[in-house]
Design brief:
Blueprint (H helix, E strand, L loop, with lengths): L3 H11 L5 H9 L7 E5 L12 E2 L9 E2 L3 E4 L13 E9 L13 E5 L11 E4 L17 E4 L9 E2 L10 E3 L7 H9 L4 E5 L3 E7 L3 E2 L10 E2 L2 H12 L2 E8 L3 H13 L4 E5 L9 H9 E6 L3 E2 L5 E5 L2 E6 L3 H19 L9 E6 L3 E2 L4 E11 L2 E6 L8 H5 L3 E5 L5 E2 L4 E5 L5
Parallel strand pairs: 5-6, 12-15, 12-16, 13-14, 16-20, 18-23, 21-24
Antiparallel strand pairs: 1-11, 2-10, 3-9, 4-6, 4-7, 5-8, 17-19, 19-20, 21-27, 22-26, 23-24, 23-25, 25-27
Helix pairs in contact: 2-7, 4-7
Bound molecules: adenosine monophosphate and magnesium ion.
Magnesium ion binds next to loops.
């Protein structure tokens, strides 16, 4: 067991503050996209497509009517008008889902419904409104003759095969999070099993002797565990799966037992909060140092400096700081990009806007992420901070819709100046 503060001081000097960008790049290099699995179409929404989808068919697969009406030869109705009605003999009735047998000859027509196949010989559809049958025709027996009072050009009101998709077209490419319309087109292609990337599983633990589960009676000196819930939400919101391991005593063996349990359950990475600062009871870092590998500790950021990263039994381990705001920001800055990579998604740039600060900001020179509320005004975005920026004050994050980023090395940002605001929940 490492010996408290003296040891921690020694460690600090071995782990200088790593710049955020460097830490991000180093951590991201530790991850790769997960393996591919197949899911039924009904479970594919929100999953990330893992293979190129090339259509084996045309869509529509066959020429069909886009209107309820009469399939005709355009030539036959070319001169139709109110004063010059063209009378055609109706030789067939073609509801959707049937396959027409006959052929439309000169002077002939077939009643046809939307989506029904165009019979041979016909090259246009006259909408029912342009005939003497009118909209009353639904449910009515097929008439013997039809009078057409408006011409229909060749190709009118029919959808040729391949109008939407041609056989051989690339319809979807890997690395796309499937939306309802994407799954719809997969259904139209007849696909029922979809290759997707496996969802990353995160083992989430909250070490801390002071922690109680919400719902338990409060005790002197204790606090409720918030981070389990925040981290679980962030993991699932990003598209991963959470394995909650609960509150763990500040004890070397207990932390290890919990990590072992997570690994037996097949997690892809481990996520804890707390136990990484320069304190005597910070067991997480000790576990990594003694039973794993600590590759990064302490980042030049505020909040979130004591962030640790390493591997436990080969499994990547993020040791986020315990203060809830630090844990949240640490997740957004480091864990989310890793999750995105494991999921097979491309890294997208942060959603940011330049904002005018309504108040001055003091920093200590670390790259700072300050909770702010930004609104769009006539002349642009303006932002003010949401209360005390202590890293334990989660309410300030509840009130915020953005994080204002102060670059490393900057200690004072005057009121009225421009800054970058990161809209972590969208605009
Ligand atoms: P530590 O790094 O373990 O010393 O934790 C730093 C601060 O974060 C302390 O005030 C802890 O009580 C607090 N903290 C640690 N874990 C949690 C948690 N799961 N929920 C809320 N606060 C926490
Ligand atoms: Mg602790």
């Amino acid at each position: 067991m490492p010996g408290g503060y003296a040891h921690a001081k020694l460690m600090s000097s071995q782990f200088p503050l790593t710049p955020i960008a460097e830490a991000q790049a180093r951590l991201l290099a530790e991850f790769s996209q997960l393996t591919v699995e197949t899911v039924p179409l009904a479970h594919a929404i929100g999953r990330v497509l893992a293979e190129t989808i090339i259509s084996q068919i045309d869509l529509p697969a066959f020429a069909n009517s886009s209107m309820d009406g009469f399939a005709v030869r355009a030539l036959d109705v070319a001169d139709a008008g109110d004063k010059q009605r063209v009378t055609l003999k109706v030789i067939a009735d073609i509801p959707a889902g049937t396959h027409p047998e006959g052929r439309i000859g000169p002077g002939q027509a077939a009643r046809i419904m939307t989506g029904a196949p165009i019979p041979e010989g016909a090259d246009a559809v006259v909408p029912v409104e342009d005939t003497d049958i009118g909209i009353r025709s639904a449910g009515v027996d097929v008439p013997k003759i039809v009078q057409v009072h408006r011409p229909a050009a060749s190709g009118a009101n029919l959808r040729p095969p391949g109008q939407d998709v041609c056989k051989g077209d690339t319809v979807l490419t890997p690395g796309r999070r499937l939306r309802p319309q994407d799954v719809g087109v997969l259904a139209m292609l007849g696909t029922s099993q979809i290759p997707v990337f496996r969802q990353p599983r995160a083992g989430i633990l909250s070490p801390g002797d002071e922690l109680l589960p919400p719902g338990a009676p409060i005790e002197p000196g204790k606090i409720y565990d918030a981070n389990s819930y925040v981290l679980r939400g962030l993991v699932t919101q990003t598209g991963g799966l959470a394995l909650p391991l609960g509150i763990i005593p500040d004890d070397f063996a207990a932390v290890r037992q919990s990590l072992d349990e997570a690994i037996e359950n097949g997690v892809d990475f481990l996520l804890s909060s707390g136990g990484v600062s320069v304190g005597a009871f910070d067991f997480v870092r000790a576990v990594l140092e003694q039973a794993g590998e600590l590759t990064l500790w302490r980042v030049n950021m505020r909040p979130g400096k004591p962030l640790a990263f390493g591997r436990y039994r080969g499994v990547p381990y993020f040791g986020l700081p315990g203060n809830p705001v630090s844990a949240y920001v640490g997740f957004q800055v480091f864990v989310k990009p890793a999750l995105i990579k494991m999921m097979g998604l491309p890294q997208l740039p942060r959603l940011t806007r330049q904002v005018r600060l309504l108040e001055a900001i003091e920093s200590d020179g670390r790259e700072s992420y300050l909770r702010a509320y930004a609104v769009r005004e006539a002349e642009g975005w303006v932002a003010s901070l949401t209360g005390h920026q202590g890293s334990g004050n989660l309410r300030s994050l509840v009130q915020a819709n953005a994080l204002v980023i102060v670059p490393a090395g900057v200690k004072h940002v005057p009121a009225g100046s421009q800054a970058e605001a990161w809209f972590f929940d969208g605009l």
